[in-house]
Write a structure and sequence with these properties.
The complex is a heterodimer of chains A (337) and B (313).
Chain A: E1 9-20, E2 23-35, E3 40-44, H1 51-58, E4 67-76, E5 79-80, H2 86-92, E6 97-100, H3 114-126, H4 130-143, H5 149-152, H6 162-174, E7 180-184, H7 192-209, E8 212-217, H8 220-226, E9 229-234, E10 237-243, H9 244-249, H10 254-261, H11 307-311, E11 317-318, E12 324-325, H12 330-335
Helix pairs in contact in A: 3-4, 3-6, 4-6, 6-7
Chain B: H1 2-29, H2 34-39, H3 45-55, H4 61-73, H5 87-122, H6 127-141, H7 144-158, H8 174-208, H9 211-218, H10 223-260, H11 266-275, H12 279-307
The chains are: A alpha/beta (337), B mainly alpha (313).
The structure holds adenosine-5'-triphosphate, iron/sulfur cluster and magnesium ion (MG).
Amino acid sequence: MSGAPGPILEVRDLHTQFSTLDGVVRAVDGVSFDVARGETLGIVGESGCGKSVTAMSILRLIPRETGRIASGSIKFEGEELTSLSEEEMKRLRGHRISMIFQEPMTSLNPVLTVGTQIAENVVRHLGVSWKQGRERAFEMLDLVRIADSRRRLDEYPHQLSGGMRQRVMIAMALSCDPQVLIADEPTTALDVTIQAQILDLMIELKEKTGTAIVLITHDLGVVAETTERVVVMYAGRKVEQAPVEALFEEPLHPYTRGLMRAIPRLDVEADAAGTRPRLQEIPGLVPILTQPIVGCAFAPRCSFATDRCRNERPPLVDAGAGHLVACWEVDRVRRAA
Amino acid sequence: MTAYIVRRLFATLPVMAVVAIFVFFLIRFAPGDPAAIIAGEDATAEAIAQVRMKLGLDRPVLEQFAIWSLQLLQGDLGISIFSNLPVTRLIAQRLEPTLALTLSTLFVAVALAVPIGVVAAWKARKLVDRLVMGFAVLGFAMPVFVLAYILIYFFAVQWRLLPVQGYAPIGEGFWPFVESLILPSVALGVTYMALIARITRASMLEVLAQDYIRTANSKGLATDRVLLLHALKNAAVPIVTVIGIGIALLISGVVITETVFNIPGLGRLTVDAVLKRDYPVVQGLILVFAGAKVLVNLVIDISYAFLDPRIRY
Ligand SMILES: Nc1ncnc2c1ncn2[C@@H]1O[C@H](COP(=O)(O)OP(=O)(O)OP(=O)(O)O)[C@@H](O)[C@H]1O
Ligand code: SF4
Ligand SMILES: [Mg+2]
């Protein structure tokens, strides 16, 4: 797309923490990445590695009672988001950065019509009348290919299927032509055929509108099919980042390799429930985030681990061609391939 | 929706019929002979028999019931034994104060409690919330008559801002009417206010944790829209239910309330009629009270369908 050069979104050394009875949870522990204009960036990692918290931090939707962005910087079009007022943040949300969530069954308000929920976003941010807002909602439902869209405007979420609700969420999120769409596991709760349809739709719309997408998922199959660049997260940290081909060509982090081995084959996919199994097949447990992690967070589960791994945190290094990895033993890992 | 409302209205008829039958026989089989009481303490057996005949109490019960039901269907509740006036007219005369007090109490309670509950939920565990909940516990524990006397002492006796007690009909000027209602409404309303505020807070807290509120916030909607539309509409069913229960309690409580505040409404009429065994009036009043409760129940039920599209009708 056009516009100023440079990334649309820059996240630098983000630390997001929660105060709980067990202590401080370091949910995001120093994550950095850029999102280029119009690109699709994937963020992958096992459950609990901090993907959602990263997304919620960008929109500054971390619950204020328990959580906070402890440090770091988030720049959108060069503007620092962490220091914006709440009112300024509200003008951005749903307008220039929008978000869709994993649970299509519960993410729409059950007592408001689909038309109202899309139109209110447009009315709020583009300052148009309700009549124009509704017209826009109608256009958007057409765009996400919901049949009989005129009538659907006046329906309530419970009258729609899961796939249709997620289409409505997409319609809502894109209704103000945002520069960035953060999709947090948008298809995880859907069955496989619908998953593919929704992903295709998102990519098609992205190409049409130039919206950059941050696609959060634990499904490497989805990453391979839809993203251009991938960030791999583990225990609140970024452990690897690469263009999608390079990552699948030669994963450099032992954790990424573990994920790849756990990937369900796309040609045999889908269990009885119609969903791909979660990626939890790497032996061992995710570290407890209330304890400060010394050294490499993956060390307890890593077959390459050495004493240095357990005592010193591996820095992110460029292994060539924009392929970053945080691992002391990259060379050994490479040779082991 | 209209068809649904009409259907629900018709569904209340059997309920009212059962109430009517129950009321009729309850009075007939209650201990004490109305004729004897009406005839007076020293009346002879002959005099009592005469009264009984005049009242039609000498006829078979079923015949009495048939006559009474036929009249009832025509909207005729009979004639008061003491004043010889139609019961409908007696009730109509006393309806205004009771209606005014019930509605104004409800207004005081709901108009304050719902916003208070919403704010408390929004600022959960902050100072405002703690103050509100402290007040709610206090308000709920405070007996109405204690609060009433405190209010009367300060506002009426010390500062002379409002009348001590009594009722000024709306026909005699709007301001005196409103002034006469303020103290009783506040005194009565505080309990309900506390109750409704608590339910509002609890219901809102539950709703505010839902995914769709996160969605609403991710759209950058204004706080008032998130709270008052997205959240409150979802939280409304329990709130409306409690308001309905509050109305029912208020209706049952008019006898005491009107005595405390010296208001000449249906409650006082009830006390007088019961003491004098004016059973046509008692019957009429019970029917009116029961009818009012059935109606409130109906309105609450219908409001559910408006508030939640998932409720099928
Ligand atoms: N409100 C909260 N209070 C306390 N801890 C939290 C809170 N939200 C998230 N966490 C913790 O932060 C960590 C990261 O959570 P996050 O939701 O970002 O994981 P995720 O990568 O999105 O996982 P999933 O794939 O299951 O969605 C987890 O350990 C989680 O328990
Ligand atoms: S740094 Fe060490 S423990 Fe961590 S992934 Fe690399 S080899 Fe394994
Ligand atoms: Mg998540």
